[in-house]
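User: I'm writing a short report section on ligand binding and want a predicted complex to refer to. Could you take this sequence and magnesium ion and write out the structure as tokens? A short remark afterwards would be nice.
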Amino acid sequence: MAKKSDTKPKLKPRDTETIEQIVSLANGIVTAAGGGRDLSIDIPTRSLANVRYNKTRKILEMGKGTNSRQLFNLSQAKSYMQTILVAQGASRLIGEGKSNSIRGLYYTLKHKIAPTSENTFEDQAECDPIIEDLEVILGSLREELHLFADNRGGMVGNIILEDSGDEINCGRMGSGGYAVPSIVEPEVIRFKECTAKFVLHVEKGTVWQRFNEDKFWRNNNCILTHGAGQPPRGVRRMLYRLHNELKLPIYCLLDNDPWGYYIYSVIKQGSINLAYESQRMAIPEARFLGLRSSDYERCALSDSVQIALNDTDRKRAKQIAGYPWFAHKKSWQKEIDKMLDNGFKLEVEALISKDISYVTEEYTPQRLKDQDWLD
Amino acid sequence: MSETTSSPEADDLTETNGEATTGSNGDGHKNRRRATAQSMAASQKEISVSEFFAKNRHLLGFDNPRKALLTTVKEAVDNALDACEEAGILPEIWVHIERVGEDRFKVGVQDNGPGIVRAQIPLIFGKLLYGSKFHRMRMSRGQQGIGISAAGMYGMLTTGKPVKIMSKVSKRSDAHYYELQIDTKRNRPDILNGKGEGVVIEPNDKGRRNTEKHGIEWVEIDHGTRVTIELEARYQRGRGSVDEYLEQTAMANPHVMVHYTDPDGSVWDRPRVTDTLPPEPREIKPHPYGVELGRLVGMLKETKAPTIGQFLIQSFSRVSPSIARKICEGAKLGVRTTPAKCERQEADAIYKSIQTAKIPAPATDCLVPIGEDLILKGLHQIIPGEFYAAATRPPSVYRGNPFLIEVGLAFGGTSPAQRISIDGLKEMLDASDARTLRQFLSMTFDGIGADAADKIIAASEMRPRVSPGKLEKEEIVKLHEAMQNVNLNDGQSMSILRYANRVPLQFQAAACAITQTVMGTNWRSYGLSQSRGSLPSGPVTLMVHMASVWVPFTSESKEAVASYPEIQKELRLALQAVGRKLAMFLRKRLKVKHEGQRRAIFLRYLGEVATAVHAINGTDREQLLERLMKVAQKRTASADAQFDDRGRPLEPTEKDFGGSVLIVDPASEPLEK
Ligand SMILES: Nc1ncnc2c1ncn2[C@@H]1O[C@H](COP(=O)(O)OP(=O)(O)OP(=O)(O)O)[C@@H](O)[C@H]1O
Ligand SMILES: [Mg+2]
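Assistant: Sure. The structure tokens for the complex follow:
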């Protein structure tokens, strides 16, 4: 039943493997339907219930739990159909030796289901998690499905790379910086020359701009990255490679709120959602430089920078405090307790309001000098 | 009691009193004298019942010409059915309404009943409050002894024409033909024909010739009675019409055969649904709890029993010697007291003692319900629907009178407004006296409320205030179309067919205990929508029957049942019984619908899956799709179980409801009824 390949390009072994996996998924449907059996796909569960914290490796790993997605179940019928559609889309890309963005794939697969006016996918947010499902179903990486995400996150600093044959000097990227691609595997990106001594990762583009404008990376001889919020896989993989291949320490400067804690947790241990990716992305040695709950007093910030915690914040904070990788760390428990005590959260911008270059010229250098961070 | 009014001493007495009155008025500040007791005495006299009812004809259901026609037919038909059933004859009835003038009709009703003996005919048809049913406790349609003579009187008063009666008791006996007038002053019959003796029609050729000679209308049968009344009336179809009465009567009396010739000459033959006569209701004696003081006084006067003890045992049901003794003890009277010696005071004591005595409830085997089975059949015949349920309650007692309640419910189907032909509509529009179209719609058709009327008018693009008589031909076509096409289910409110002893009650709905109890029932919990204190909406028809040895009507026109708490309670229980079944049906239907929707959702995605799988591994798409569909059918089996091999919905079976329901597949019903 394998797909007839007429004038198809020669496939790489890994690609052949992936296609075979997709074909066997399809064959399973044919057999089940023929036998009048239920149609279901087992999908490794991507939720907190199915992640394990590996204490020795200090990363999150996916457990063995699976969910079955059934065609003849009202709440699952559509996502079952979507899963098969995504599999078909990926198999075609692989077969044709082409890649597509996840956005591009969404548009290729989106159409009206005749005779109704319902769409196969209503928006991209509906399609993205299905792609992640397919990754875990097949045990393939996204790029092995010939899919990539939009470039998101930025990078500047004392490093020269080669990106698809082009030399990129991250010390000469102007105010915009180098946009970190979705796929940063060695086939695509090679590190050519690096004098930087560490990486400072900040949460948002705006803060990153402040640091870039103040030439923090030049003054402190480092690489400066941001992930536009929760860092995408490309940025995380880039940090991982910088850390593991170039032995650069990673410092994170994030907001003093549950979300900031979570981002740190993702960089350090891996994400719950994508736990299967942890082993090639998680950086257990990454450090949390700030913002700290004590900074409000320590830096004598004005009370206008306080943002009151809401109920969700409090709930999230307690949840995070309970994560196994934070649960036994006194410093972290104190940190989170202090925030709850304060009753407010702080953004990195709070420091900028004190003095425009306070964060780049005083706060961060001081922290680094004092080695005052959380781990 | 009558002595005071007619004795000469009384006159003297009034005289003296009169003097005194004049004296006290002597201050003379008013010259004009008011009536004196003497002058008043001159005009004080007995009022004959017939005179009273001639003036208060609305009490008997003759408030307007249209209703007069209905009431006349109704009194005659009710009597015919009573007579046939009492004689154990399967009733066959001929109803003939003939237009004899602009607003004059001749109503002839004949039955195949036992006939009436010669001597009784004039009294029955020519004297009010003369009948066989008043004094007995037996379930029958008539009970007061006013009905048919009142109709005759109304006819006579409005047209001057006599009531004509032909009656025959057996094949070989003479028939008797009378033309009567009622002497309203004296409440007695005047025989106009045969020199005041009536006419004898022999059972031979001579008789036949005579029949022709006297212009007697008569359908040749062995025995029966025909009454013909000419009256001022108006004929109009729709709600509260003769047609409706006959249709509803047929429904509650499936053993009756009706031949109806309407004023347009169309003949409507309604065959029997069953050949079995309902069992004969047993006559019972009144129960002591039900007797009123006045009636008790009368009974004491009339009785032939030598002692009070005997009197109580003989005149009432459920009074044993020991109970009689207890009643007498309670009244502080000897059991052997002579009834005739009982004065008001003693009667009062007996009455009070009865109320506190412990007396077993009356026997209830005197009631003959229509029965759940025939209710279902009858409803189904008249009202096209999808679901029918019926409940007959066990007998109960109010004020010492046994009664029982039964309820039938029909759900679904089209409303009467949607079953009407365009010609029928035209006719109704012409005859209607409604001022606006909106009024016409809600007045003429059952189940059309103001909302539904507005919907129809909007759909027909007409002005709501247009006069129904002034519609152009194309406008009528448009209106008819709108009536067919507008979904009336939502705007439709429940219609209720009320019956008392198998007689349809067509008026005074709001005053009736039946309507009130229906409105007071929470139908929302049975899956219908209802706003507080009003009838629920939806395509529902209720049939509610009260059977009793004495139906407590709110007035002599027998249009509404009085609200006794015991009756309301039984009504409530019966309504709840059918309500629960309706709720079950609606739930099941919803489930089937949901299953159907479920399947539709699965089917929707199967095509996509098959296409994708085909693209991945080259499988034959159509074959895969077919197989997937099969699995889908299997997985939504409960939607499937409702379809037979031709794909028609079978719906849940009647057994699922614990019986007393009828489920009909609308698709298999013929469109024309
Ligand atoms: N068609 C008939 N055949 C035989 N008997 C009849 C017929 N019509 C009337 N009668 C007798 O005449 C009596 C009087 O009838 P009428 O309709 O006046 O009073 P009713 O039926 O007793 O009570 P109601 O006033 O409630 O109708 C009846 O009780 C019945 O005995
Ligand atoms: Mg009668």
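A remark for your report: The domain at 13-148 of chain A is CATH 1.10.10.10 (Arc Repressor Mutant, subunit A). Chain A has a mean pLDDT of 90.
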